[in-house]
Every structure is written in structure tokens, then in C-alpha cells.
Design goal:
Order of helices and strands: HHHEEEEEEHEHHEEEEEEHHHHHHHH
Largest sheet: 4 strands, antiparallel
Number of helices: 14
Shape: elongated
Radius of gyration: 29 Å
Length: 398
């Protein structure tokens, strides 16, 4: 297992020890020892120079590499009897195959410095680890992050570009202003712009994408957008960019990072593979009853009355009843039209026992669409038909 690197700490210690010893020699008037301190510094410099050749893969404890018994469950990941990452800190996992059949499970954490990379012997063990963490793509929600906020309009995108350009102009103007009296300060122009370009990506707020079996929820600075699976018409991918083409023709461009970004090179294929699996499950025969349950042009009151009629057994009603097993298939069908799923929940509400409510609570926990999740939670809590629809409408408007 490879965790946070200690290379920065190792370099700081290597540089700090000779410096501290030199100061001590000066303070204690032991100047004759400074020659040995200088030899130590020279030895460290030589070792640092030849280290890539002597240890091309680095040194295990410095790179954060450790070997030992690993434990993974719904509580998180434990190593040698101590928890190293809780389940609440885990955003997603990506599995990478390596030569020889081994698998590396890359565990992405809330904080990048807590990311873990676990090497396992085979694919079966890797799948067992993912399942133990309750990150199975078929059942659980994973979170990815992208740059270039896809929720931003064209006008906001242009405004952001202008702001970045204005920042560069401001940095250049400040250097030019300070160099009026001391022209030598002009040499600081290029370093100042370089520092600005390096700090800029760190100041960018990334967009979180909650990916569940039923679709996506995008969150950026308080703004949220849910995209059901049924709305995604096509997935295109290039380098570290994934483009979702919606049924309306709208394109959402998801940039995971630069071409040389190692983390983006892991996150992008993991997202694409999961999306392709999810879209692949959509190609099935739709339940004929979906059109009967979907809202269409009906207002909330009319829709609720028709759904209650759907739930009734027997004859004499103007709306044909729908079998309970069909209602459950639609309610749990990740590719079903969202309002048809809400309609199935309303039709089921009078037939829910404790086990069925627990089933709906579990379904809500792995649902990405906030409006559908609100309807599931309302149905699981025993809400009336109009309350389930109202919960869905409120979440849709927000």
C-alpha cells in the first residue's frame, strides 16, 4: 500500500540537519567540527544526485509504501490494526491493471494528500475490496471532481477568462510600477507571472459530480444540477476530457485535469468506464406502464388522483391497475423516466411494510438525483401521495 509521500519531509530533514549543526557549532565555538558538517552536507548532496540511479522506484518508507495485513469494510480501510482512511473520507475508487495480473486500487479521498494506492494480487481480490468498501458501481454513489465548471454559462465562462487575463495584467503592472526607480526589478516580471500561473489552478474551485446508478448530480459553489440517466444520449471522450451529450442537444464538457496530471489520468478512465457500464444497462425494453405512471402534462392534483387509481385492484376504474412487482421494477429502474419512478412510488405507498420502507431508504441513499431522492425519502417515511409529489417538485425547483 502506498499512502502520503514523505519526500518533502525527507528533503527538509536532509537540508535542515547540516544547517542546525552549523549553527550549534557557531554557538558553542566548536568551529573545528564545521568541516565534518560540511562533509555531511556533501555526502547528502552526492547521495541525492545518485539516488534515482540507485533506487529508481524510490525508497519505500519515504514514498509512503508499506506492506502488511489490510482490512476493508463499510467503516473504511485499516492497515496493521489501525484505521488509515474512514469510509466517509472516500470519494471513489479506480482499478488499474498492471503487468503480471496484479491490480492497483486507487482510493481517492476528500483530501488529495490522503489518497491511497493499494496493490493486490488479482482482479477478484480488487473487486472484493471495492465491494467491501460499499463502492460497487452498480449500487453505491461515487464522487468525482472536474475543472472548468460545466454548470457555468458561456457568459460566465468568458467573464472568468477575462478575470484571469486581468490578474495577469495586474501582476505585470505592479512589477512595472515598482521598477520605475529600480530597473533591475524588471527581471522579476517573468518569475512573477510564472508564480501567478502556478497559483491559478490551486485557486480554481472544482465541481463535484456525484455519480449513482440512476444519473449524476453536479455541485459547484452552492449550485446543483441533477442529470438523470435517461437524459444522457451519448458519451464522447478524449485525453482527460469526457463530454456528455444530452437528449436536448446540450453538451456538458467535463475536464478532469491537464494531460500531464496523474490524478486526472486515473479519474477520467474510472468515470468513463462507469458511465459506459451505466449507459449499457439502459438498453432494455421499457415497461409499458411507464407512460401510464409518468406525469406528462398533468398538474399535481390530477396526477395524484390517477396514480391512486393505478394502485387500486379490481375493475370499474378508468385507469387500469398496475401489478405491484411492475411498480417496484419501475421505482427501482435506474433507466426509467424520473416522473414514472415517482408515480410508481405514489402507487406503492399503500402497500409498504417496514421491509419495503427500508428498501426505499437504501435506494434513496444511492440515488444521485436530488428530486428523486426527496420523493424516495418521503415515500419511505410513509408520506401521502400529494406529499411525495410535493417533495419531488420542491427539490426539482431548488
Amino acid at each position: 500500500m502506498r499512502g502520503p509521500s514523505r519526500r518533502g519531509l525527507a528533503l527538509a530533514v536532509a537540508a535542515g540537519v547540516p544547517a542546525v549543526l552549523t549553527i550549534l557549532c557557531e554557538v558553542t565555538n566548536q568551529s573545528y567540527l564545521e568541516e565534518y558538517v560540511a562533509l555531511l552536507g556533501a555526502a547528502e548532496a552526492i547521495a541525492l544526485f545518485f539516488l534515482p540511479a540507485a533506487a529508481p522506484n524510490g525508497i519505500g518508507f519515504i514514498n509512503g509504501e508499506r506492506r502488511g495485513p489490510l482490512r476493508a469494510d463499510r467503516e473504511g480501510i485499516g492497515f496493521r490494526g489501525r484505521q488509515v482512511l474512514s469510509r466517509a473520507q472516500i470519494r471513489n475508487v479506480a482499478v488499474e491493471g498492471v503487468i503480471g495480473g496484479a491490480q492497483i486500487v486507487h482510493v481517492s479521498a476528500l483530501r488529495a494528500k490522503d489518497d491511497l494506492h493499494i496493490e493486490l494480487g488479482d482482479d477478484e481480490t480488487a473487486r472484493a475490496l471495492v465491494a467491501a468498501l460499499q463502492l460497487d458501481p452498480e449500487r453505491h454513489v461515487a464522487t468525482f471532481s472536474v475543472e472548468e465548471d460545466p454548470l457555468r454559462s458561456r457568459a460566465r465562462w468568458l467573464a472568468a477568462r477575462l478575470l484571469v487575463a486581468a490578474g495577469a495584467v495586474a501582476v505585470s503592472g505592479a512589477v512595472l510600477y515598482l521598477s520605475r526607480r529600480e530597473q533591475l526589478l524588471l527581471l522579476a516580471l517573468v518569475p512573477a507571472l510564472l508564480v501567478y500561473s502556478l497559483l491559478l489552478p490551486r485557486a480554481r474551485a472544482r465541481t463535484d459530480i456525484a455519480f449513482a446508478a440512476d444519473g449524476l448530480t453536479l455541485r459547484h459553489r452552492g449550485r446543483t444540477r441533477s442529470i438523470p440517466l435517461s437524459a444522457i444520449a451519448e458519451l464522447r471522450t478524449e485525453q482527460n476530457v469526457a463530454t456528455l451529450v444530452l437528449g436536448t442537444g446540450e453538451e456538458l464538457v467535463l475536464r478532469f485535469g491537464g494531460d500531464t496530471d496523474d490524478n486526472a489520468a486515473l479519474q477520467h478512465p474510472a468515470f468513463v468506464a462507469r458511465m459506459r457500464r451505466t449507459l449499457g444497462r439502459r438498453h432494455r425494453t421499457r415497461e409499458q406502464s411507464e407512460a401510464q405512471l409518468a406525469r406528462g402534462e398533468r398538474d399535481a392534483g390530477e396526477w395524484a388522483r390517477d396514480l391512486l387509481a393505478v394502485a387500486r385492484e379490481g375493475e370499474g376504474y378508468r385507469v387500469a391497475s398496475v401489478p405491484q412487482d411492475t411498480l417496484w421494477r419501475i421505482a427501482e429502474g435506474v433507466a426509467a423516466e424520473p416522473t414514472a419512478r415517482v408515480g410508481a412510488l405514489v402507487a406503492l405507498r399503500g402497500r409498504l411494510d417496514d421491509d419495503a420502507r427500508a428498501r426505499l431508504h437504501d435506494l434513496a441513499s444511492r440515488t444521485a438525483q436530488s428530486d428523486l431522492r426527496a420523493a424516495l425519502e418521503a415515500a419511505a417515511s410513509g408520506a401521502e401521495a400529494d406529499e411525495i409529489i410535493a417533495a419531488y417538485d420542491r427539490a426539482s425547483r431548488s
